[in-house]
Specification:
Length: about 270
């Protein structure tokens, strides 16, 4: 994490390329996921486009936060939160992903009301989305409890992966942000503002997950939120701890999707 929140564009301004602009969870049980996250974060839900299965958009006080979609019954990828990074040209971004050693697994394709979307993975295998927005610009709720507050890539090493993202999205990267440099950490910046981070964890990278993006959600009280996760059938992976950027815990929902809870970021 870093010293500032992810910049967003609910005021209608375009997000710079590379800025996280949407977050989606693909699960086997959409109804059960709605119950879990609705109880944890206070989300309400509206039906979204079927792509190709059921999909809902989560809202906080009427503002869109994230999406939850149905995995096909015959597909069993890791259940995970996936950030979508803004692009001015999804086709060009997809070409750059391939040229720089990544993989494009889906798209780019038109999604009703959401623009051009693609799913890709970096050279270390971490999955992320590409989004060229149209009418639906992305998440509207930012900087409030229950909304995504930060996205961090957990990977084995930082230097090669940072070069990939910089080449694809034009990030300005700076180790450790404006604070003293932290070994193994890189902050990715758009127009001088921090938008995401890369954390090289070496052999501590979970073998069953590999490199992955981790979404942090803002909460009013990290410890109470952890207790609530457990009451709702989730589990704790990293207990609540104080950091330079707030009190953080890493948890998993009942289907195993990993995310973090943070209070005091910003």
């Amino acid at each position: 994490m870093t010293e500032a929140r992810v910049p967003a564009g609910p005021d209608g301004t375009a997000r710079p390329p590379g800025t996280p602009c949407w977050t989606t969870l693909m699960v086997h049980g959409v109804t059960e996921a709605q119950e879990f996250y609705g109880a944890l974060f206070g989300w309400e839900f509206l039906p979204g486009p079927r792509r190709p299965g059921p999909y809902v958009r989560a809202l906080l006080d009427g503002r869109e936060v994230a999406g939850i979609g149905q995995l096909a019954a015959d597909r069993h990828p890791p259940v995970a939160w996936t950030p979508y990074l803004a692009s001015d040209d999804a086709e060009l971004t997809a070409q750059l992903v391939r040229h720089c050693g990544g993989t494009v697994g889906v798209g780019p394709l038109d999604a009703a009301g959401a623009g051009r979307l693609a799913l890709a993975s970096d050279p270390a295998g971490a999955v992320f989305g590409i989004r060229q927005p149209t009418a639906h610009r992305g998440a509207d709720a930012t900087g409030v409890c229950g909304a995504p507050a930060w996205h961090e890539l957990r990977t084995r090493e930082t230097s090669g992966v940072a070069r990939f993202y910089r080449a694809v999205f034009g990030y300005e990267d700076e180790p450790g942000g404006s604070a003293p440099a932290v070994p193994g950490r890189v902050i990715l910046r758009c127009k001088g503002r921090p938008v995401a981070g890369i954390h090289g964890v070496g052999t501590a990278l979970p073998r069953d997950r590999g490199a992955h993006w981790l979404t942090h959600f803002e909460v009013g009280d990290t410890d109470k939120a952890v207790t609530r996760v457990c009451d709702l059938g989730g589990r704790v992976l990293e207990p609540a701890r104080d950091t330079a950027h707030g009190r953080v815990a890493t948890v998993a929902d009942p289907e195993g999707a990993v995310f973090s809870l943070v209070h005091g970021l910003g």
